[in-house]
């Protein structure tokens, strides 16, 4: 009998060990893992260099309060700021916590409270992050929400214009909606959103928690669209599996998070910082990111080719290595069947299979995954219509 709250309906696989893109169960079965946590272990499980960096820090000190200057924290902040074109970083422990901080910073800096987010968005489970999230199922039973969040349809400029008035503190968005079904924002919508924000004195916050740290083939997904956000948030892939979250913001915002204004006991933990520094050092290398782009093209075109005649498949889409396969039918049972066939994947909403492989997965591993998906989905091809 489990003493855990049943907040997650658990899968049938109990991991015993994991390395790279493979996981081994306590029953001795081998699985190809195309989830990398949920887009967390971007360098694969138990990456040797990240492991060595954490071990080296373990021998020095594990935790000191944020009252001390810590060199490894400065180094991580500098790497994150440089890669994102930002000035200052605040380290937290999770994605939701990073978004909380971004929302607080936006309110304080603008003196305004209204924040616009989008339908199907996901920003986390804490109160402000949940209020920001554009999915009713996340909010059920927890009301009332914070009142100052307004959701508008994604990629809908007219709807945004109607809400984006002078009293708006910020617009917060995912460039690729992850949990909401792998929806990529269109470029005109993003550019126009940025311009509208500037014209009414609202900040642009980009939630890069799932899309950042090389996931899309750039350090951050907003860089595909030449955007210039005021704040970004990061978490999932930032330390390859050690809990961490971060806000990175422009120079004009630095003064609003002065001494005593915001804080966290665990944020910026030295072990997480050691992992983050090594992870960023490897992923932000141009040759590494180029490979992610190539693997993305390889995987998307192979999926499109192998699934194009399949009537159960509606669309394959994505950016970099955040990829969705939208089906005509619910995916829950199919995910379980794929696990039985040795492949671990996620859903994004009811009808989308979500692939978030480690970024250093090999093309042979990708081929293996596509074969398993193709064979399984073939069974559904004619039933779906
Ligand atoms: C996962 C996620 C979050 C929440 O992060 P947690 O670490 O679970 O709090 C927020 N925004 C996006 C886009 C995410 O994918």
Account of the 3D structure:
With 385 residues, the protein is α/β, with parallel strands linked by helices. The protein folds into two domains: 15-33 and 286-378, Aspartate Aminotransferase, domain 1 (Alpha-Beta Complex); 48-283, Type I PLP-dependent aspartate aminotransferase-like (Major domain) (Aspartate Aminotransferase, domain 2, 3-Layer(aba) Sandwich), CATH 3.40.640.10. It has twelve helices and 17 strands. It has helices at residues 36-39, 48-60, 71-84, 95-110, 127-132, 136-139, 157-163, 187-200, 270-283, 286-307, 332-340, 363-380; strands at residues 15-19, 22-25, 30-33, 88-92, 114-118, 149-152, 168-173, 176-177, 183-184, 203-207, 231-234, 245-249, 313-319, 322-327, 343-344, 346-347, 352-355. The strands form four sheets. Strands 4-12-11-10-7-5-6 form a seven-stranded mixed beta sheet, with helices on both faces. Strand 2 (22-25) and strand 3 (30-33) form a beta hairpin. Helix 10 packs parallel to helix 12 (363-380). The mean pLDDT is 97. Pyridoxal-5'-phosphate binds next to helix 4. The site of pyridoxal-5'-phosphate has 15 residues, from helix 4.
Keywords:
385 residues, alpha/beta, Aspartate Aminotransferase, domain 1, Aspartate Aminotransferase, domain 2, 2 domains, seven-stranded mixed sheet, four-stranded mixed sheet, 17 strands, binds pyridoxal-5'-phosphate, Acetylornithine aminotransferase
């Amino acid at each position: 009998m489990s003493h855990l709250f049943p907040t997650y309906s658990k899968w049938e696989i109990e991991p015993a060990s994991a390395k790279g893109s493979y996981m081994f169960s306590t029953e001795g079965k081998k699985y190809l893992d195309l989830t990398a946590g949920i887009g967390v272990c971007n360098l694969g499980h138990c990456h040797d260099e990240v492991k060595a960096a954490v071990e080296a820090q373990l021998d020095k000190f594990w935790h000191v309060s944020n009252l001390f200057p810590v060199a490894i924290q400065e180094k991580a902040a500098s790497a994150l700021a440089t890669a994102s074109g930002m000035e200052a970083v605040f380290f937290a422990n999770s994605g939701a916590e990073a978004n909380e901080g971004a929302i607080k910073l936006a309110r304080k800096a603008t003196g305004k409270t209204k924040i616009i987010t989008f339908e199907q968005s996901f920003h986390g489970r804490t109160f402000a992050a949940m209020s920001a999230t554009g999915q009713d199922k996340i909010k059920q039973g927890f009301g009332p929400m914070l009142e100052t969040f307004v959701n508008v349809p994604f990629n809908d400029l007219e709807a945004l214009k109607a809400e984006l008035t002078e009293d708006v503190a910020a617009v917060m968005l995912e460039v690729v909606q992850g949990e909401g079904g792998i929806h990529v924002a269109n470029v005109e919508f993003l550019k126009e959103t940025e311009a509208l924000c500037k014209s009414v004195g609202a900040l642009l916050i980009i939630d890069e928690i799932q899309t950042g740290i090389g996931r899309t083939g750039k350090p951050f997904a907003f860089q595909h669209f030449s955007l210039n956000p005021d704040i970004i948030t990061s978490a999932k892939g930032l330390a390859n599996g050690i809990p961490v979250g971060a806000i990175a913001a422009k120079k004009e915002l630095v003064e609003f998070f002065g001494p005593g204004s915001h804080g966290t006991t665990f944020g910026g933990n030295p072990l997480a910082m050691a992992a983050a520094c090594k992870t960023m050092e490897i992923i932000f290398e141009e040759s590494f990111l180029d490979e992610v782009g190539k693997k993305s093209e390889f995987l998307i075109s192979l999926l499109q080719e192998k699934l194009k005649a399949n009537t159960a498949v509606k669309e394959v889409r994505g950016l970099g290595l955040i990829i969705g396969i939208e089906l005509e039918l619910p995916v829950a049972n199919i995910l379980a069947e794929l696990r039985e066939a040795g492949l671990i994947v996620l859903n994004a909403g009811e009808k989308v299979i979500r692939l978030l492989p480690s970024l250093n997965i090999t093309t042979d591993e990708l081929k293996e995954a596509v074969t398993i998906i193709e064979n399984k989905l073939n069974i559904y091809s004619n039933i779906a219509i």
